[in-house]
UniProtKB/TrEMBL annotation:
Biological-process GO terms, alphabetical: heterochromatin formation; nuclear envelope organization; nuclear migration; nuclear pore localization; protein localization to nuclear envelope
Top-level taxonomic group: Eukaryota
Protein name: Uncharacterized protein
Lineage, opening ranks: Eukaryota, Metazoa, Spiralia, Gnathifera, Rotifera
Keyword Coiled coil: yes
Coiled coil region boundaries: 354-395
Basic and acidic residues: bias regions: 1-13
GO CC field: nuclear lamina
Amino acid sequence: MDRNTKIDHHRFNSELNRPTTAPPHQPTTVIKYMTPRTIGLNLTNSFQGSLRNFTLPNIDSSLVAPTLTTNYGLVSFVQAPLSSAVAPIQNIDGEHIRHEHRELSKLHETLTDNILLCCHYEVHNRAQELQLELFQANANKNSSIIEKMFQSEIETGHQLITDASRYKSELNKKLTDIHQVTVANDEHYQQLLSKRNTTNKEIFEYQRKLAQNRAESEFLRSRIQQFNDETNFYTLKNNILQTRQVKLRYELDEETFAKQVLEMEFGVLENEKITNEDIHLTTMNDIRQSININQIATIEPSNTFHEQLNYELRRMKSEFERKLQTYRDELHRKFELEYHRYRMQKSFPTPNVLREHEMNSEQFKREKNDIEQQLRFVRENIYQLQSQIEIIEKKILDERVNTESI
């Protein structure tokens, strides 16, 4: 038996010391800890396999149990009591990441169990070698049985070594797969981090746009309030203007009616002036023709002239009253016609022509002023005619007095 076989202490250290390929010393790095386990040595003669019923005589008293150290190889990972608990995993954003980490922890747990099983077999093999040394020291006692037991244990050991070698290859394959999965998970984790950063940037951009939209909505709301205030102001102003429009319409109708009245009065006065002038000329001609200087002493011209003058005045007065009544009737009919038109316009509302009405009203006012000036001129002429008539009457009276005195 080759007793110089050594265990490779660092065979799995390169893969187990770092369970993840994520960058160290970062708050987002997931660090997993495998709880160490301690494998107890079989020093109580409770062997298994073909040696399970074999007992060494006075093994505890005749052979000092060697002190085995487990500070070499894979045993250095399993020095604490048996425990399958894993330290809690630091929280990472996303339930999917936590699920992947739990799966990775389970794979590490399986790898640890297999490594511990391999270590157990190696330690058991070492114990068997120690027992073989003990058997050689006690070769004189039960040598044949010990040799058989040794051969059986050797075969069992070889079988265990073969199984352990097979398990090691499987564990190496699993470790390679786990490493590949870890690399893939790290890449996926980096993708998730970049995606999270992109999402945070998009969220920030959306929040900025939302704040901008809120500011614009507040500005538009204030502008709408201003427009509503202006609308209310102009509505009130429009009501005032409509009231003023109605008032101006009434004034326009009154001015129109007054204009028509003044025009008719002007026509009447013009006709009256012409009539008075004709009457005056006719009277003067009649008087001149009726006066006979040769018969002044025998006739009474003054009385005749006075009677004729009174008659003409009464006739002119009656004629003027008749014409005035005719014009009054005509004005009344026109007024009723205009009033009927006004009521028809009120029943059928017309569009807003306030500016046009104001211009018409100003024009009517100017025409009214012109007509009033003409009326004043006509009245002055009438006053002049009356003064001339009075002068003529005075002259007639003077002539009559002179005639009587003669």
